[in-house]
Design goal:
The protein has helices at about 15-25, 40-50, 60-75, 100-105, 110-140, 155-160, 175-190, 220-230, and strands at about 5-10, 30-35, 50-55, 80-85, 145-150, 195-200, 240-245, 245. By secondary structure, it is an alpha/beta fold. The longest helix is centred in the middle third of the chain and has 28 residues, at about 110-140. It is globular, with a radius of gyration of 17 Å. It starts with 5 loop residues before the first strand and ends with a strand. Bound molecules: 1,4-dihydronicotinamide adenine dinucleotide.
Length: about 250
């Protein structure tokens, strides 16, 4: 087993995940850059430096998840931080604008195939990856799990007519993040006695492929809170949902 702590960031070949991986490497972790496409993961890992390694990981494939878990155990012998970052905002043609995503995701017209595909990645993928890696995380001295959620998943915020983003609250992406929040809380409750801290975080509206680069925050700004939650000390919270301004309503 290696002495340096090990962190896995899913979907870290680009966007906010790549920045989280970069920042965690800067904080002394060996970072595993999860990527569906190994080549993209290797390019991303190389851009971070010697502390980063690519790890083939498709969060919708049980075979890929099992192989990744085996590799982490045999090659690194430990896992201290899991950042469930991989996510999709729709399952249609790449490059859709936010307006197009919002319109096709309205509850009156949303394709069930698309709802299922987005839940497969954003919700079931998180459950599957977390279950496969929990044995390793339980062995770590102070494991942390961080789930990349969104204020678009907050029922309380979107029930408020004065919350502008509610204009795109639909039946696809938003409820996938609501469900992810529920899973975060359930896992935090189950693991309370173990010292493993599980938190959900909203990185804010960030310019990435997820929103056709319409987001206004930088990936550096977006990564700061997930990284903070990955580095929590033993007095840090568990079972929370927050952004950089503090707790968010579920
Ligand atoms: P992005 O599209 O740049 O990155 C998403 C990453 O997930 C990519 O690396 C992609 O390859 C990966 N991914 C997708 N499906 C996967 C699968 N089946 N297996 C493994 N990896 C997969 O988007 P971004 O913005 O960096 O998103 C990261 C997280 O932040 C997502 O969970 C997203 O929902 C969340 N988020 C993003 C916001 C934004 O404004 N960009 C706002 C709120 C939350």
């Amino acid at each position: 087993m290696q002495n340096k702590p090990v962190a896995l960031v899913t979907g870290a070949n680009k966007g906010i995940g790549l920045q989280i991986a970069r920042d965690l490497a800067g904080h002394g972790f060996t970072v595993l850059v999860g990527s569906r496409n190994l080549e993209h993961g290797e390019t991303a890992a190389k851009s971070i430096g010697a502390d980063a390694r690519a790890l083939q990981l498709d969060v919708t494939s049980q075979a890929s998840i099992a192989a990744a878990a085996d590799r982490i155990r045999s090659e690194f012998g430990r896992l201290d931080v899991l950042v469930n970052n991989a996510g999709i905002s729709h399952a249609g043609e790449p490059g859709r604008s936010i307006a197009e995503i919002a319109n096709s995701g309205r509850p009156s017209v949303a394709s069930l195939d698309e709802v299922r595909a987005v839940f497969e990645t954003n919700v079931f993928g998180v459950i599957a990856v977390t279950q496969a890696l929990l044995p390793l995380l339980r062995e770590a001295p102070a494991a942390r799990i961080v789930n990349l959620s969104s204020d678009l998943g907050s029922l309380s915020m979107n029930a408020d007519p004065s919350f502008p983003p509610r204009a795109v609250f639909g039946a696809v992406y938003s409820p996938s993040k609501t469900a992810l929040n529920a899973i975060t809380l359930a896992l935090a409750i189950e693991l309370e006695s173990t010292g493993i801290k599980v938190n959900a975080v909203c990185p804010g509206f960030t310019g990435t492929d997820l929103n056709n680069f319409e987001g206004t925050r930088t990936v550096q700004e977006a990564a700061s809170q997930p990284v903070r939650l990955a580095l929590l000390d033993e007095n840090g919270p568990t079972g929370t949902f927050s952004n950089e301004d503090g707790p968010l309503p579920w």
